[in-house]
Structure formats: C-alpha cells, structure tokens
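Hi R.,

Here are the chain sequences for the assembly we discussed:
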Amino acid sequence: DTAVSQTPKYLVTQMGNDKSIKCEQNLGHDTMYWYKQDSKKFLKIMFSYNNKELIINETVPNRFSPKSPDKAHLNLHINSLELGDSAVYFCASSLQGVNQPQHFGDGTRLSIL
Amino acid sequence: SQKIEQNSEALNIQEGKTATLTCNYTNYSPAYLQWYRQDPGRGPVFLLLIRENEKEKRKERLKVTFDTTLKQSLFHITASQPADSATYLCAWRGTYKYIFGTGTRLKVLA
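And here is the predicted structure of the full complex:
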C-alpha cells in the first residue's frame, strides 16, 4: 500500500538513449510533481501538474516530457539522454492548498554511461 | 527570486543533546514553511509545517520556530538519538511550487 511509487528504482543506460520513469500515487491527491536531486543533494522542482494539467515547467530542456494520463499518474519521458541527466529523480504528490505537505516516492537513480 | 538557505551542510552532536538547524529565506515571507527528513536512498518525509503567524510549533521531540523579522526558521530536536541521524530539509511553498533548501546532514553520535 505504498503511497507514491516510482518505477524503476535504478536506470542505467547509454548516452543518447530514450527512457521513461513512471509514477503513481494512491492518496487521492490532485497535484503531482517531478524533482531532480543532483550529486550535491539539492532538490529542484522540474514540473508541477494539477488535475492533469501542466502548471509549472522550471526551464527544463524539452528533451524532458511529462505526461499525466490521469490524476493518479505522472510519467516522465526523457529523450536523447546526456551525461548531465545523471541524478535521482523524485516524484511527489500533494493536495492543492498552500498548507499541504508533499508525499515523495523513493526516487529513480538514473546513471548515464 | 526566492531562495532558501540552510547554512550548515553537516552537524554532529552528542546523543541526548538538542540539535538546532537553521533555515533562512530571502525576499518575501512564505505563508508556510515546511520541514522534511530524508534518509539515504529514500524520498523526503514531511515532519512539520509552521504558518507565518505562528511563532512556534511542536510535535513530540520536534520544535519549529518562525521569525519573520530575521527571515528565519529554526528546527530543534530535543533529546536527540542516533536514529535521528538524517538530512533535514526546509521548504517554502509557493503557488504549485516548493523551493527546498540544500539540507543539513545531522549525525547524532552515541
């Protein structure tokens, strides 16, 4: 009964490949997010979706394309992977209100060879 | 643009002491400031939230304060235990967006 689940947990691939990360939440939240955590552990927001609509896109290269088929899912597709994409990617969800906490998945560690 | 800064990258304290972590923000005051705990290989877990007009919030051994004059929040863990060792993150909540601090890695020594 994991609240926010991401797959896969580890992703090792070659530069130039295309890959996807899936995220699902069973909390009934209406807002979902993707974050990138770099080697210095800084957690930076990439995208925010509310009720399946893109709300925030934090100047992320258009090689990254999020897709929200429904409110419980937010997937991330990455084209033409580059070395600098190596990081841990976290999915999170919350209710819409400003006082609402986020619930995070356990991350997907992406390593580009 | 808004920035959230956690001054100490790492903090070591002796078991039983009180750990105090600092979070400073620039520019405008957040309506809410949140604190999260992150263990290695895991996602952040929400701990406490404090509103702008609250001076202090407590939950068991945890206490958070908010000083809008200093633009600062302090996070205290009293009677610290080795199990409290983790990275602690503060976060500012904007519209559909959270800005996280860089985190403080706390190590409680037995």
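Chain B has one domain: 4-109. The two ends of chain B are 41 Å apart (CA to CA).

Let me know if anything looks off.

Best,
T.
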